[in-house]
Amino acid sequence: MERQDTELERPAWAPPEVDIDTPSIARVYDHWIGGTHNFPVDRELARKVAAGNPDLPATLKANRAFLRRAVRELSALGIRQFLDIGSGIPAEGNVHDVALAAHPDSKVVYVDIDPVAVAHGRALLADEPRAAVFQGDLYRSQEILDAADTRRLIDFDRPVALILAAVLHFVPDGDDPLALVRRYTERLAPASALVISHAGAEEVPRAAPEAAEQYRGAVSQVIWRDNQELAALFEGLELVEPGVVRAPLWRPEPAETPDPGLAMLAGVALKPGG
Ligand SMILES: C[S@@+](CC[C@H](N)C(=O)[O-])C[C@H]1O[C@@H](n2cnc3c(N)ncnc32)[C@H](O)[C@@H]1O
């Protein structure tokens, strides 16, 4: 990673423990989705990666827009608790904003493996007792489910929406993503929900091979799955309409003109028995 020659002045929102002169993938992502929690080094890396894959920022924005619509719909169904694993930086317009706008008694727990995302998240949520963020690994389900913040904010006897947005594509088949998902969903009460978005297999050819390589180098190995493979991760749950579709096509707002070509699949399912 490149470093800047000049030291930047640290803004009040940037926690002291984060390095603002070295790019952070969490802040690169924040920049792509239109956030303000990023620095020139992050924007420079974002520009380089997106130059090879011009659809990437729009795809990630469409993913976030899907997430907001899903939270709104689940709030309308009466869900008040959200566990968002692989959340990234929970900046403006994220799950807690949507959930709390729908119902002021909603509770949101964010978890991410990236300490930089968590540090920014902690600063952002410092004055919000109804939401928390902590560092955790999706693979370590017991630690996440038993964490102090989870126990303080989430009552597993009542419905919870588990959000795995743009994170399961980092879990290879050899690590059994369905078994991983089930370690969480088996703890959820009836009428709980599972929200997934995932890099979509059909779209791989749209990205130039070198761009895919660049993205891999900058982020992590991405496993592309198709609709059926993604639907299989909802096994045992009931997919709500319209099922697994490209993220922009999942219940778009009437005013939106979704670009169906974007390479992100999405779906929402409910746990039966509610
Ligand atoms: C592409 S971003 C998605 C951010 C957000 N969920 C969204 O959809 O806009 C993926 C996030 O997953 C996190 N992540 C990757 N592997 C993880 C793991 N094993 N456990 C927890 N978080 C993980 C990364 O640090 C990153 O913040």
From TrEMBL:
Coiled coil: none
SUPFAM superfamilies reported for this sequence: S-adenosyl-L-methionine-dependent methyltransferases
InterPro entries reported for this sequence: SAM-dependent_MTases_sf (IPR029063), SAM_dep_MeTrfase_SAV2177_type (IPR006764)
Top-level taxonomic group: Bacteria
Transmembrane spans: none
CDD domains attached to this UniProt entry: AdoMet_MTases (cd02440)
Name the UniProt record assigns to this protein: S-adenosyl methyltransferase
Native species: Streptomyces poonensis
Upper classification of the organism: Bacteria, Bacillati, Actinomycetota, Actinomycetes, Kitasatosporales
